[in-house]
């Protein structure tokens, strides 16, 4: 994922070289968590298990080889993903570019690593939108919105129970 324009100044000027050194020299063009290869189509089952064509065997989400019984893999459930490595900051601080704080991660591992950060960001954005609405919304609209909250979809609230 590209660096946001507002965060560009947090990264060093030689970030492309640092990222390349982590992804290709140190990690050998493989994810450091699950060992998926960079720029390859990988067959996977959606739960972290994936087919390693180089080792001709299945691996789990942590990159360990696993044994699968013949016929145990539902062919209808096999999907493919194009893997692209990214250089991730393990402490989520783009200013900390120590080699121990950087890891080469595929999309899946990067999303799992950043899940808590993404949940927090989603909450913060919703909080900020509500605060802005409270500041700038017309008072009569606010009063009507609060007095008549929207009904749930699919639930008919217009009918009354018969006694």
Helices, strands, pairings?
Elements: H1 15-26, E1 41-44, E2 50-52, E3 57-59, E4 65-66, E5 79-82, E6 86-89, E7 102-105, H2 107-113, H3 115-136, H4 139-147
Antiparallel strand pairs: 1-5, 2-3, 3-4, 6-7
The gross shape turns out to be flat
Subunit arrangement of the protein: single chain
Q: State which percent range the strand residues make up.
A: 5-15%
Helical run tally: 4
* Alpha-beta content class: alpha+beta
The secondary-structure element order is HEEEEEEEHHH
Share of helix, binned: 25-40%
Biggest sheet, open or closed, and with what strands and sense?
Answer: 3 strands, antiparallel
Instruction: Give the neighbour order of strands across the main sheet.
Output: 2-3-4
Give me the count of strands: 7
How far is the first residue's CA from the last residue's CA? 60 Å
> Unreliable segments (pLDDT under 50, ≥5 consecutive)?
none
Mean pLDDT: 88
**If you compute it from the alpha carbons, what radius of gyration comes out, rounded to the nearest whole angstrom?**
24 Å
Describe, in plain words, how this protein is organized in 3D.
It is built from four helices and seven strands. Helix content is 31%, strand content 15%. It has helices spanning 15-26, 107-113, 115-136, 139-147; strands at residues 41-44, 50-52, 57-59, 65-66, 79-82, 86-89, 102-105. A three-stranded antiparallel sheet has the order 2-3-4, with no helix packed on it. β2 (50-52) and β3 form a beta hairpin. The chain is an alpha+beta fold.
């Amino acid at each position: 994922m590209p660096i946001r324009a507002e965060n560009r100044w947090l990264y060093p000027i030689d970030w492309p070289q640092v990222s390349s050194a982590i992804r290709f020299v140190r990690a050998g063009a493989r994810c450091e968590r699950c060992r998926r290869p960079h720029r390859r189509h990988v067959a996977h089952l959606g739960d972290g298990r994936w087919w390693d064509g180089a080792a001709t065997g299945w691996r789990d989400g942590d990159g360990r080889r696993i044994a699968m019984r013949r016929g145990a893999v539902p062919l209808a459930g096999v999907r493919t993903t194009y893997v692209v490595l990214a250089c991730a900051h393990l402490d989520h601080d783009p200013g900390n570019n120590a080699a121990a704080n950087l890891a080469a991660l595929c999309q899946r591992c990067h999303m799992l690593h950043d899940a808590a950060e993404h949940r927090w960001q989603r909450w913060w954005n919703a909080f900020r939108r509500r605060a802005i609405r409270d500041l700038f919304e017309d008072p009569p609209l606010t009063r009507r919105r609060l007095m008549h909250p929207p009904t749930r979809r699919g639930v008919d609230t217009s009918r009354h129970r018969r006694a």
